[in-house]
Amino acid sequence: MMGFIKRLSLVLFMALSFVSCKDDTKEKDDNYAYLGGEIINPKKNFVILSKSEQILDTVTLDANNRFLYKIKQLEDGLYTFKLPAAEGLEFQMVLLEPKDSIMFRLNTLEFDESLVYTGVGAKKNNYLINLFLDGEVEDKIILGYSQLPADEFERLLDSIRDHKLKKLKAFKGNNSTSPFFNELIEGTINYDYYLSKEVYPFVNYSQSEKRNFESLPKGFYDYRKQIDYNYCNLMDYFPYYSFLKHHFENIALTEHFKNSNDSVYNVKSFDYNMIRLRLIDSLVVNDSIRNSLLAQTAIEYITNSKDVDNYDALLESFVNKNSNTEHQRYVSNIVKSLKDLKSGNMLPKVGVIDANGNQFSLNSKIKNPSVIYFWSSTYRSHIDSHKKADELKLKYPEIDFIAINVNNDDIKLWRNVIKQYRYNTDNEYLLANPKEAKYKLAISPINKVMIIDEKGKIVNAHTSMFNIRFEEELLGLLNN
Questions:
Q1: Rounded CA separation 278/260 (Å)
Q2: By CB neighbour count within 10 A (0-12 exposed, 13-18 middle, 19+ buried), where does 17 fall?
Q3: Which residues pair with 71 in a beta bridge?
Q4: How far apart, in whole angstroms, are the C-alpha atoms of residue 196 and residue 321?
Q5: Strand, helix or coil at 168?
Q6: What is the pLDDT of residues 26-82, one digit of tens each?
Q7: How far is CA 280 from CA 16, 27, 273, 283, 318, in A?
């Protein structure tokens, strides 16, 4: 659960435009770094290099699957390299400072686990990747601790942080480290610790969230006095952003409980999400961090709630607080699309391509009561979705199950994925115009499902095959 929470935040973090804090100091001749690597089992012959989601370059691998790239006018900080792997794009971050010359070697079949750095600046990056890998193991341990009483949970969590800080002190004693590295690692350790405490009331299953909040020991959240809501050096590193997301969920829910009769966490609550927007706007000064958190909050509410009547009010609040016009346009389009997807409306017209390369209107494929589910080879959940659809087909043969891939613009690559997983091509389609279709069908989250009647009218535009009530919806579809 803790790992899922971090990765969910990461997915959303990577999806939103983030602009890093800039250093306005003069450029120097020695303000550069080299980054290179060797890729084992590459899926394609290129690597994408970026900084704060701004793409620097797409670098082609040579005949030996290697590359070397010089970053000029270097801005100290975290850079990202992405490359096609077994399942879509995989990525990892690397810390670069002036005059670094870092080489890495990795196998796409074991992306993070196989990653090793060498060269000038390698030690700090090996430390960073080991901290990341250790964190994945610790997540499972901390989830177990989260079922304990709060004081015992806090004591055990403190011991994990203390151990990490002692390791950092030993590393600094044996190696020459920069102030930037020290701040990054110490900040990562602290904000990971803070995140675990913010999440505790949500993942402790002994009581309702409200009761969990009320039973916390005095001083449990004393560290909040030290929170920097505009931490430029950490803003590109996802543990910090993940912390901020869940911190605002926490403090918004606490305030919501004071003024409502609710006692459990409800992400679909309009009042709760309006409080989230207000708190983010009031506490975060940095435009990039504030805009991303605001956009994430608005998108989560709009895509989870079916209360269309509240969309405009939340959108107005969001637009008044978010200064990023691209975010405003994106969220506004989602609201428009979801309004068009109200129950009883006709399924919007979007183009799809079949495995033979023929293009059709999706509407023309609706001959019977249908379930439309979406998938992406970027997320391994597509395996579970297809498996669930196959199970339901056997129980409900009167219903067509239509699978639509949303991410592979390359029809050849899409066919290869279908062949690799032995998916039946009869009801497998590729979006002809993914960008347009994602807006029209409001495809977020990726595992959303649409239920359509035999006339092509929308019954439910936003459900899930894994919802415990999903089969009740199918029976209702057949009995209408």
A1: 17
A2: middle
A3: 33
A4: 28
A5: helix
A6: 445 678 999 999 999 888 899 999 887 788 999 999 999 999 999 998 988 889 898
A7: 16, 34, 11, 5, 11
